[in-house]
Amino acid sequence: MIWMKKDLEEQIKKQAKDRLLIIASNREPYINVFKEGKIEVRRPTGGAVTALDPVMKACGGTWVAHGSGSADRKTVDGKSRIQVPPSNPAYTLRRVWLSKEEEEGYYYGYSNQALWPLCHIVYQRPIFDATHWKFYKKVNKIFADAILEEIGKQKAILWLQDYHLALVAKYIKEKRPDIICVQFWHIPWPNPEAFRICPQRKEILEGLLSNDLLGFHIRYHCDNFIETVERELETKIDKEKTSIISGGHETVIRAFPISVDFEAIGRKANAEEVKKSALRLKREIFPEKGLLFLGLDRIDYTKGIPERFLAIDRFLEKYPQYKEKFIFLQIGALSRIHISWYKNLNDRLNAMAEEINWKHSTGDWAPIILLRQHISYDDILACYRRADVCIVSALHDGMNLVAKEYISAKTDNSGIILLSSFTGSARELTDAVFINPYDIEKFADAIKEILDMPATEKKRRMKSLRRIVRENNVYKWAGRVFEEIEKFWL
Ligand code: F6P
Known about the structure:
With 490 residues, the protein is α/β, with parallel strands linked by helices.
């Protein structure tokens, strides 16, 4: 069965019955910003929001998130609520306000300088700072209070997202043990050896074990989590049921590989607006002839962007006959730039692109275009449509939805994907061409391999990848989470 929007809608209505569905994440799905005296709506880049917005559109309910946009306060009602999407409201967004100090300690600090590098094994040393931790706890309480306020006296299913909110379920259960708490961890869970350096490990684990259901992308991360708990806490592990009993409370652990709205992306990719975007990008950026390679990421050190540049450089050193035959377009959304690691990475990418272009350019051709700006979703889809090759070279990634979005946009079965073996999506997208982003020599050869690959073989692979993403779309992901909730608690 292929899960459709209406199947999920029906399932959640049947299960939730009189319960409010409430989602909470740090990042909000719609951000209001001031631009040139007007208020604009921005869609953030990032996996969690991409996956959950279609789910909320299908099912309704309330989404609690940090109001981070410059015009966010201007657009809410007296209870900090706004109906979204603005063009066709389907659910409520409740914004949570944080002071600069709170955002600094909780988001830039503990979430992104401790937990993010701790869980992504890319050899970036985490920073555990007592003040960051203090604000992480404080902001998790602020979220819990806002959630409880939204729920009021109702029954509810709370679906928490990600590593920013590891303690929320605990604060909720202390006041309302009847609320069904589910958490999805969107990033990898490391092995126990890596996790044990975390000074706050017991509190983090106890927070997560306050949930009734805890989800990761892949089985391997579930196993890592269970082994970590076994090592750190006095608990009972039920291997048969794959659950953990801690202090008399049971948490079921499951793998749910996240995905995208395959059909909607395909439809939109063929829409008039995207065709218009494509015509403009053809004039402004796309190569007139030759191939377009595409990289599209938040600029983050886990994404393996320097490794991509190095592979292009090596590829041209080894195979100079491909000069002028392609352009590599790297689109990068600026992210977390208050953290020095991110600022330095941006500077490094500028320098690398400049140097590689200088080294290999001929006439008015240079191999790399580095575009670092927010681009509209229509433009992104136009890029997917035009790109002959999509490169996803993350050093470690929970899933990576760019790979699945690219495949969904390729309704004509064109294109090919170079995919890092260290992404969660590598487990499913078995017809991609795999790379180890640390092995620049083989990475460069993989670029050559796909360029020389017969068209029939490329088409076969893309067809197979499209079948996989069609069958394992975001509605199936959310549907499976709700099936699991029904099995145990409804
Ligand atoms: O990968 C997990 C995730 O929460 C994604 O949703 C997103 O790509 C990222 O982490 C968070 O990005 P940001 O810090 O910009 O919200």
